[in-house]
Specification:
The protein has helices at 51-58, 81-87, 104-115, 126-130, 133-142, 158-170, 188-201, 214-220, 238-242, 245-253, and strands at residues 11-22, 25-36, 40-44, 66-71, 74-75, 89-92, 176-180, 206-210, 223-228, 231-236. It is of the alpha/beta class and 258 residues long. It has a domain at 1-81 and 179-187 and 208-258: P-loop containing nucleotide triphosphate hydrolases (Rossmann fold, 3-Layer(aba) Sandwich). The chain has a 6-stranded mixed β-sheet with strand order 6-7-8-3-9-10, with helices on both faces. Strand 9 and strand 10 form a beta hairpin. The longest helix is centred in the last third of the chain and has 14 residues, at 188-201. This is Amino acid/amide ABC transporter ATP-binding protein 1, HAAT family.
Length: 258
Protein backbone atom coordinates (compact mmCIF):
# COMPACT_ATOMS: atom_id res chain seq x y z
CA UNK A 1 0.00 0.00 0.00
CA UNK A 2 2.87 2.36 0.85
CA UNK A 3 4.86 4.01 -1.88
CA UNK A 4 7.60 1.47 -2.64
CA UNK A 5 10.24 4.15 -3.26
CA UNK A 6 9.92 5.52 0.31
CA UNK A 7 12.61 4.66 2.86
CA UNK A 8 12.47 4.67 6.68
CA UNK A 9 14.09 8.13 6.77
CA UNK A 10 11.26 9.61 4.70
CA UNK A 11 8.76 9.40 7.54
CA UNK A 12 8.26 12.18 10.06
CA UNK A 13 5.89 10.21 12.28
CA UNK A 14 5.18 6.52 12.71
CA UNK A 15 2.98 4.32 14.84
CA UNK A 16 4.19 0.75 15.22
CA UNK A 17 1.75 -1.82 16.56
CA UNK A 18 -0.03 0.89 18.51
CA UNK A 19 -2.77 -0.36 20.86
CA UNK A 20 -4.91 1.12 23.60
CA UNK A 21 -7.34 -0.85 25.66
CA UNK A 22 -9.86 0.36 28.20
CA UNK A 23 -10.47 -2.71 30.35
CA UNK A 24 -10.92 -5.57 27.91
CA UNK A 25 -12.05 -3.25 25.08
CA UNK A 26 -9.49 -2.21 22.47
CA UNK A 27 -10.18 1.33 21.18
CA UNK A 28 -7.03 1.05 19.04
CA UNK A 29 -5.50 -2.28 18.13
CA UNK A 30 -2.14 -2.96 16.53
CA UNK A 31 -2.18 0.09 14.26
CA UNK A 32 0.78 0.76 11.97
CA UNK A 33 0.86 4.23 10.49
CA UNK A 34 3.54 6.05 8.53
CA UNK A 35 3.29 9.75 7.81
CA UNK A 36 5.67 10.81 5.09
CA UNK A 37 7.60 14.02 5.71
CA UNK A 38 6.19 17.06 3.88
CA UNK A 39 2.77 15.53 3.21
CA UNK A 40 -0.74 16.10 4.53
CA UNK A 41 -1.99 12.74 5.76
CA UNK A 42 -5.54 12.05 6.95
CA UNK A 43 -6.81 9.64 9.55
CA UNK A 44 -10.44 8.81 8.80
CA UNK A 45 -13.02 6.22 9.73
CA UNK A 46 -16.63 5.90 10.83
CA UNK A 47 -17.77 7.08 14.27
CA UNK A 48 -16.05 5.17 17.05
CA UNK A 49 -13.31 3.87 14.72
CA UNK A 50 -10.56 4.94 17.13
CA UNK A 51 -9.33 8.11 15.38
CA UNK A 52 -9.31 10.35 18.45
CA UNK A 53 -7.74 7.65 20.62
CA UNK A 54 -5.05 7.09 17.99
CA UNK A 55 -4.46 10.83 17.82
CA UNK A 56 -4.17 11.06 21.59
CA UNK A 57 -1.63 8.24 21.53
CA UNK A 58 0.44 9.97 18.84
CA UNK A 59 0.48 13.28 20.74
CA UNK A 60 1.22 11.50 24.02
CA UNK A 61 -2.02 12.60 25.65
CA UNK A 62 -2.70 8.91 26.24
CA UNK A 63 -0.22 6.18 27.09
CA UNK A 64 -0.40 3.16 24.79
CA UNK A 65 -1.13 -0.31 26.11
CA UNK A 66 1.34 -1.61 23.52
CA UNK A 67 3.33 -0.33 20.56
CA UNK A 68 5.61 2.57 19.79
CA UNK A 69 5.43 6.12 18.48
CA UNK A 70 8.42 7.16 16.39
CA UNK A 71 9.03 10.83 15.59
CA UNK A 72 11.82 11.71 13.19
CA UNK A 73 13.33 8.28 13.75
CA UNK A 74 13.30 8.65 17.55
CA UNK A 75 11.17 6.55 19.89
CA UNK A 76 9.01 9.07 21.77
CA UNK A 77 6.68 6.53 23.37
CA UNK A 78 7.89 7.41 26.87
CA UNK A 79 7.77 11.20 26.44
CA UNK A 80 5.03 13.60 27.52
CA UNK A 81 3.00 16.04 25.37
CA UNK A 82 5.05 19.09 26.38
CA UNK A 83 8.30 17.25 25.68
CA UNK A 84 7.24 16.19 22.18
CA UNK A 85 5.91 19.71 21.49
CA UNK A 86 9.40 21.05 22.20
CA UNK A 87 10.75 18.59 19.63
CA UNK A 88 8.35 20.03 17.04
CA UNK A 89 5.39 17.63 17.19
CA UNK A 90 2.50 19.93 18.03
CA UNK A 91 -1.18 19.24 18.34
CA UNK A 92 -3.68 21.94 17.51
CA UNK A 93 -7.30 22.53 18.46
CA UNK A 94 -7.14 20.96 21.88
CA UNK A 95 -3.97 21.80 23.74
CA UNK A 96 -3.51 25.12 22.02
CA UNK A 97 -6.93 26.41 22.99
CA UNK A 98 -7.01 30.17 22.97
CA UNK A 99 -7.84 32.50 25.86
CA UNK A 100 -11.24 34.02 24.99
CA UNK A 101 -10.73 37.37 26.74
CA UNK A 102 -7.24 38.07 25.46
CA UNK A 103 -6.82 39.81 22.13
CA UNK A 104 -5.54 37.89 19.12
CA UNK A 105 -2.16 39.58 19.51
CA UNK A 106 -2.00 38.67 23.21
CA UNK A 107 -2.96 35.07 22.48
CA UNK A 108 -0.16 34.64 19.95
CA UNK A 109 2.26 36.42 22.29
CA UNK A 110 1.43 33.95 25.08
CA UNK A 111 2.14 31.05 22.71
CA UNK A 112 5.43 32.67 21.66
CA UNK A 113 6.38 33.15 25.33
CA UNK A 114 5.83 29.48 26.03
CA UNK A 115 7.94 28.60 23.00
CA UNK A 116 10.75 30.74 24.38
CA UNK A 117 10.84 28.47 27.42
CA UNK A 118 8.94 30.89 29.65
CA UNK A 119 5.44 30.19 30.79
CA UNK A 120 2.94 33.02 30.67
CA UNK A 121 4.10 35.54 33.30
CA UNK A 122 1.97 38.51 34.17
CA UNK A 123 5.05 40.13 35.72
CA UNK A 124 7.31 39.82 32.67
CA UNK A 125 8.84 43.21 31.86
CA UNK A 126 6.75 44.99 29.27
CA UNK A 127 9.79 45.44 27.04
CA UNK A 128 10.36 41.64 26.97
CA UNK A 129 6.73 41.06 26.06
CA UNK A 130 6.73 43.78 23.40
CA UNK A 131 9.80 42.25 21.76
CA UNK A 132 7.58 39.35 20.71
CA UNK A 133 5.10 41.63 18.93
CA UNK A 134 6.72 41.71 15.48
CA UNK A 135 6.65 37.90 15.27
CA UNK A 136 3.11 37.81 16.68
CA UNK A 137 1.94 40.30 14.05
CA UNK A 138 3.69 38.27 11.34
CA UNK A 139 1.87 35.12 12.45
CA UNK A 140 -1.49 36.93 12.53
CA UNK A 141 -0.83 38.18 9.01
CA UNK A 142 0.02 34.65 7.91
CA UNK A 143 -3.39 33.38 9.00
CA UNK A 144 -5.33 36.40 7.69
CA UNK A 145 -5.99 38.01 11.06
CA UNK A 146 -3.86 41.16 10.76
CA UNK A 147 -6.96 43.35 11.01
CA UNK A 148 -8.22 41.47 14.07
CA UNK A 149 -5.03 41.82 16.16
CA UNK A 150 -6.76 43.90 18.84
CA UNK A 151 -10.06 42.01 18.93
CA UNK A 152 -10.67 39.60 21.79
CA UNK A 153 -10.72 35.96 20.68
CA UNK A 154 -14.32 35.69 21.84
CA UNK A 155 -15.35 38.36 19.30
CA UNK A 156 -14.11 36.29 16.33
CA UNK A 157 -16.28 34.19 14.02
CA UNK A 158 -15.87 30.43 14.33
CA UNK A 159 -13.64 30.21 11.27
CA UNK A 160 -11.43 33.04 12.51
CA UNK A 161 -11.11 31.40 15.93
CA UNK A 162 -9.72 28.36 14.16
CA UNK A 163 -7.31 30.61 12.24
CA UNK A 164 -6.17 32.07 15.57
CA UNK A 165 -5.64 28.56 16.93
CA UNK A 166 -3.48 27.84 13.90
CA UNK A 167 -1.46 31.01 14.60
CA UNK A 168 -0.89 29.96 18.23
CA UNK A 169 0.18 26.52 17.00
CA UNK A 170 2.57 28.06 14.47
CA UNK A 171 4.06 30.11 17.32
CA UNK A 172 5.39 26.82 18.72
CA UNK A 173 7.34 26.34 15.49
CA UNK A 174 5.97 22.90 14.64
CA UNK A 175 7.67 20.53 12.23
CA UNK A 176 4.71 18.17 12.42
CA UNK A 177 1.24 19.56 13.09
CA UNK A 178 -1.60 17.33 14.20
CA UNK A 179 -5.00 18.84 13.52
CA UNK A 180 -8.00 17.35 15.24
CA UNK A 181 -11.14 17.90 13.17
CA UNK A 182 -10.23 21.43 12.09
CA UNK A 183 -13.55 21.97 10.27
CA UNK A 184 -15.80 20.46 12.96
CA UNK A 185 -18.90 22.56 13.51
CA UNK A 186 -17.97 25.00 10.78
CA UNK A 187 -20.44 26.66 8.46
CA UNK A 188 -20.05 26.15 4.73
CA UNK A 189 -18.64 29.68 4.29
CA UNK A 190 -15.64 28.90 6.54
CA UNK A 191 -14.69 25.59 4.91
CA UNK A 192 -12.81 26.93 1.90
CA UNK A 193 -10.78 29.56 3.83
CA UNK A 194 -9.70 27.07 6.52
CA UNK A 195 -8.84 24.43 3.90
CA UNK A 196 -6.71 26.99 2.06
CA UNK A 197 -5.06 28.05 5.31
CA UNK A 198 -4.13 24.46 6.16
CA UNK A 199 -2.72 24.03 2.66
CA UNK A 200 -0.72 27.22 3.08
CA UNK A 201 0.74 26.36 6.51
CA UNK A 202 1.64 22.87 5.30
CA UNK A 203 4.50 24.32 3.24
CA UNK A 204 7.72 22.93 4.68
CA UNK A 205 5.83 20.90 7.30
CA UNK A 206 4.13 17.59 7.79
CA UNK A 207 0.46 17.49 8.79
CA UNK A 208 -1.65 14.68 10.17
CA UNK A 209 -5.32 15.51 10.25
CA UNK A 210 -8.38 13.77 11.69
CA UNK A 211 -11.26 15.03 9.62
CA UNK A 212 -14.86 14.00 9.10
CA UNK A 213 -15.42 16.17 6.06
CA UNK A 214 -14.29 13.94 3.21
CA UNK A 215 -14.33 16.68 0.58
CA UNK A 216 -11.80 18.55 2.74
CA UNK A 217 -9.78 15.31 2.99
CA UNK A 218 -9.92 14.73 -0.77
CA UNK A 219 -8.77 18.24 -1.59
CA UNK A 220 -5.94 18.40 0.98
CA UNK A 221 -4.50 14.97 1.65
CA UNK A 222 -2.00 12.92 -0.34
CA UNK A 223 -2.40 9.82 1.86
CA UNK A 224 -5.31 8.55 3.87
CA UNK A 225 -5.37 5.93 6.59
CA UNK A 226 -8.74 4.38 7.35
CA UNK A 227 -9.53 2.90 10.75
CA UNK A 228 -12.46 0.69 11.65
CA UNK A 229 -13.21 -0.82 15.06
CA UNK A 230 -9.81 0.41 16.25
CA UNK A 231 -7.89 -1.42 13.52
CA UNK A 232 -6.24 -0.37 10.30
CA UNK A 233 -8.64 -1.01 7.44
CA UNK A 234 -6.57 0.34 4.56
CA UNK A 235 -4.26 3.13 3.47
CA UNK A 236 -3.83 4.89 0.15
CA UNK A 237 -4.73 7.91 -1.93
CA UNK A 238 -8.25 9.32 -1.75
CA UNK A 239 -9.17 7.55 -5.00
CA UNK A 240 -7.82 4.25 -3.72
CA UNK A 241 -9.59 4.35 -0.36
CA UNK A 242 -12.86 5.76 -1.67
CA UNK A 243 -13.09 2.90 -4.18
CA UNK A 244 -12.13 0.24 -1.64
CA UNK A 245 -15.06 -2.15 -1.06
CA UNK A 246 -14.25 -2.59 2.64
CA UNK A 247 -14.15 1.16 3.18
CA UNK A 248 -17.47 1.65 1.38
CA UNK A 249 -19.04 -1.09 3.50
CA UNK A 250 -17.57 0.37 6.72
CA UNK A 251 -18.99 3.80 5.99
CA UNK A 252 -22.36 2.50 4.84
CA UNK A 253 -22.63 0.58 8.09
CA UNK A 254 -22.29 3.80 10.06
CA UNK A 255 -23.91 7.19 9.83
CA UNK A 256 -21.16 8.70 7.71
CA UNK A 257 -21.27 8.73 3.94
CA UNK A 258 -18.25 8.42 1.71
N1 LIG B 1 -11.64 6.60 27.95
C1 LIG B 1 -12.36 5.66 27.35
N2 LIG B 1 -12.90 4.65 28.04
C2 LIG B 1 -13.61 3.68 27.43
N3 LIG B 1 -13.85 3.63 26.11
C3 LIG B 1 -13.35 4.63 25.36
C4 LIG B 1 -12.57 5.70 25.92
N4 LIG B 1 -12.20 6.52 24.93
C5 LIG B 1 -12.73 6.02 23.79
N5 LIG B 1 -13.40 4.89 24.04
C6 LIG B 1 -14.11 4.05 23.08
O1 LIG B 1 -13.17 3.72 22.07
C7 LIG B 1 -13.80 3.70 20.78
C8 LIG B 1 -13.06 4.62 19.84
O2 LIG B 1 -13.32 5.96 20.26
P1 LIG B 1 -12.67 7.21 19.53
O3 LIG B 1 -13.23 8.43 20.18
O4 LIG B 1 -11.21 7.06 19.47
O5 LIG B 1 -13.28 7.04 18.07
P2 LIG B 1 -13.38 8.11 16.89
O6 LIG B 1 -13.05 7.39 15.64
O7 LIG B 1 -12.58 9.31 17.21
O8 LIG B 1 -14.93 8.45 16.93
P3 LIG B 1 -15.74 9.78 16.51
O9 LIG B 1 -15.60 9.88 15.03
O10 LIG B 1 -17.13 9.44 16.90
O11 LIG B 1 -15.14 10.92 17.26
C9 LIG B 1 -15.25 4.09 21.02
O12 LIG B 1 -16.03 2.91 21.08
C10 LIG B 1 -15.22 4.79 22.35
O13 LIG B 1 -16.45 4.64 23.03
Amino acid sequence: MENSTATAGDYALEARGLSKSFGSFYAVKDVDLKVRRGTIHALIGPNGAGKTTCFNLLTKTLTPTAGQVIYEGRDITGLRTAQVAKLGLVRSFQISATFPHLTCLENVRVALQSNHGKSFRFWSPLSAIRSLDPRAVELLEQVGLADAAHLQATELSYGKKRALEIATTLALDPKVMLLDEPTAGMGHEDLEPITELIRQVSAGRTILIVEHNLSVVSSLCERITVLQHGELLTEGTYDEVSNNEDVITAYMGGVDAL
